[in-house]
Design brief:
The protein has helices at about 1-10, 15-25, 30-75, 85-100, 105-120, 125-135, 140-155, 160-175, 180-195, 200-210, 215-229. With about 230 residues, it is an all-alpha fold. The longest helix has about 45 residues, at about 30-75.
Length: about 230
């Protein structure tokens, strides 16, 4: 006992720390090994989970590309042709499944395509519902403003000019003049303002369109409209 105490007294501070650490590891080696194994398993699981998630996301991107191509090909077919309805129903079913299971871009685009399909079949209320859902889901993408523009068109076809004007206005309010649909939105606003008898407001909107987007085709329409008012 005394010899051990003398030996300890002769050790330097660093040597004492090293000895204490060795004793600790020796006494707790089993615990340390278990902790290490748990960490390794956790890292492996995280890596596998990330890999699976990436593969799943990529598969969904591939799927929406394929479904969009099917949608384009179907647009060239006559709805009275044999097999058209079966292909259409299958496309709608696949888009619906993808829209339900993906919250990212593939799902957002699926909702938008469902809206287009409904619009082209003159199911304007369904189209409006899809486009509003798409506008909310894709708010941080180009689909946000594009969906609002289609929602406005759907509302007009339903005879609801007030609602249509609200959606045209939302494009400007939420996306400013940076959205591709902004010139069309201003023209849509002016057209509905004029239809409602708000001539002065319509003139101001048309002038804003001409000033903000001088090279746009809608700016030319605005100039022609201003000349006749």
């Amino acid at each position: 006992m005394n010899d051990n105490k003398k030996d300890m007294d002769q050790l330097t501070g660093a040597q004492r720390i090293e000895l204490a650490l060795n004793r600790f590891l020796a006494n707790h080696l089993k615990v340390a090994v278990i902790i290490l194994v748990v960490i390794v398993i956790g890292l492996i699981g995280l890596g596998i989970g990330t890999s699976v998630s990436r593969k799943k996301t990529q598969a969904q991107f591939d799927q929406i590309d394929q479904l969009q191509q099917q949608y384009r090909e179907l647009a060239y077919l006559d709805s009275e042709e044999d097999g058209y309805q079966a292909q259409y129903d299958s496309l709608i079913a696949d888009l619906t499944v993808l829209a339900d299971k993906s919250k990212k871009y593939p799902g957002q685009k699926a909702i938008y395509l469902l809206g287009l399909a409904a619009y082209e079949h003159e199911e304007f209320q369904s189209a409006l519902d899809y486009f509003i859902k798409s506008a909310e889901a894709g708010k941080q993408t180009y689909l946000g403003s594009l969906s609002l523009a289609n929602a406005a068109a759907s509302a007009e076809n339903l005879g609801n000019d007030t609602l249509a004007l609200e959606y045209w206005t939302r494009i400007i309010d939420e996306y400013g003049f940076g959205a591709a649909e902004s010139p069309k939105a201003l023209f849509g606003q002016a057209r509905l303002q004029l239809k409602a008898g708000n001539t002065d407001l319509a003139k101001a909107t048309l002038q804003q369109l001409a000033d903000q987007f001088p090279t746009s085709e809608f700016s030319k329409l605005a100039a022609n409209s201003l000349a006749t008012l």
